[in-house]
Amino acid sequence: MQIYKTRQEALPGESDYINELVDNDLSLEHKIDLLISSYQKLKLDPTGFRNLIEMLGDRLSIKARFPRKGDVNERFDVLFTTEAGYKIVAEIEIPSTAILDAPRNLLDDIAIMTNRHENDIKELESLVICWDLPNNRTDYWNVVQDINNILKIKIKTCTVLALAILVWTGESFDIKSDKYYLSTSKNTLEDTVKILAKNGIDASKYSGLLYPIK
Length: 214
What we know:
Elements: H1 16-22, H2 28-37, H3 39-44, H4 48-59, E1 62-65, E2 78-82, E3 87-93, H5 101-115, E4 124-130, H6 140-151, E5 155-159, H7 160-169, H8 190-198
Parallel strand pairs: 3-4, 4-5
Antiparallel strand pairs: 1-2, 2-3
């Protein structure tokens, strides 16, 4: 999913609903329900998911930069810069129908970042951001695992909901850890499930959003 940051400014009130999705006084469970129920509205908004991901990133202290339209030297969907100095190159797959292409696209992104822009591969993290996780029968998990086994590159996977839960609970986005390295043997966002359990919320209601539909 190629997302471009356009020069056109949003009209007053156009993106207010994004602010309301992220910053509101609802309980954590109601925040989650509101975000999930807003999927169709976000999908119909040409910049909906882009603005939401950018806002969540800002709250998590990872600043988003989207490529300029037509710039073949920047093929990533979004590049995050962290306070620690490393970068997160990300592909956004919403809906996740073409998510199998994301790991291969990230390898291209990394190659361009290291060869053309002289970034140190040790200072790059790779991430797939999706709305729902691919089910257990897809080859996505095998591809991610094969890339790690052969190239020693751990492509991380995270859903929009998981990012939002981190924001709402004041948790940090620790992409350097293996919390978000999901593969065939472990493809549940277990850390997020634990955060919900601490807040008295049953994560089983969010099948597909925090763990794959079998």
